Amino acid sequence: MDPKLELYDRLPALLKSGQDCVMAILVAITGSAPQIQGARVLVNAQGLVQGTIGGGKIEARVIAEAQDLLKSNDHFRFHEWNLQTEIGMTCGGLVKIYFEAFRISRWEIAVYGAGHVAQALIPLLLNLDCQLQCFDPRAEWLERLPEHPRLKCQQLANMAESVASLAPETFLLSLTMGHAHDLPILETALKRKHTEPKVFPFLGVIGSPAKAGVLQRELRQRGLSQAEIETIRCPIGLALGNNQPAEIAISIAAQLLQERDQYFGKNKWEQPGYRSHPVTGKDSDP
């Protein structure tokens, strides 16, 4: 097999194992260089994974630049180097190298409950760059969800017991059969936030203002402070649409995108060219 194709075959396995990586490609050469045009390498946080772009000083520089890219929020970089004056090699050529990062999505969403709203919401979220988990005690509802490599379903009689194992940055949504099922999930999540304040940047529960009042009262009775309780979003979703599952799902997905952009700093409305934010009206041009 062509060595270049072997690198592309290696990529899915690296990502599946949880390793972000960078592919660097030697796209152009002027003069002499220690590798041919099209040579490429895969690099992860630990160093060279596969391939060669010439060894020695040029490869060490490529590995260092690739690892620096992984530490940033950038997806692509392009460098042009003089091998003699900038890399310290005896070769006098110029090389142009393209770097592309491949990252696992850091946006994790845990959905508690696989009922009607979850059935509408989860396929919608699978179109986005996120990792999803869904918990429900009912196997027949979990089986209705689509099979997808970024969706993990788990049947649990006691859904709250899984809260402790969620990644700290998980967005947690409680869409269960009723507040009796929501309550232990929310209590467990808030108690974890008490000891780990930065966990669960978004904690939401489906319901009405009346349900929110009942949940707040019962959580206070269980010893949670008002400040902790107020971190819960209830009702979940933006103020749009009606009570059909599909429209509720759209309102929730829209709210999650807003919260994701705020948390991860991906707000396109802050970029030049978007003259005003549709909600705030703020001019985004410098």
Automatic annotation (TrEMBL):
Q: Which Pfam families does the UniProt entry name for this protein?
A: XdhC_C (PF13478), XdhC_CoxI (PF02625)
Domain XdhC Rossmann residues, every copy: 110-256
Domain of life of the source = Bacteria
Signal sequence, renumbered to the chain = none
Annotated InterPro entries? MoCofactor_Util/Proc, XdhC_CoxI, XdhC_Rossmann_dom
The XdhC- CoxI domain sits at: 15-73
Task: Name the chain's protein.
Answer: Xanthine dehydrogenase accessory protein XdhC
Organism, per UniProt?
A: bacterium (Candidatus Blackallbacteria) CG17_big_fil_post_rev_8_21_14_2_50_48_46
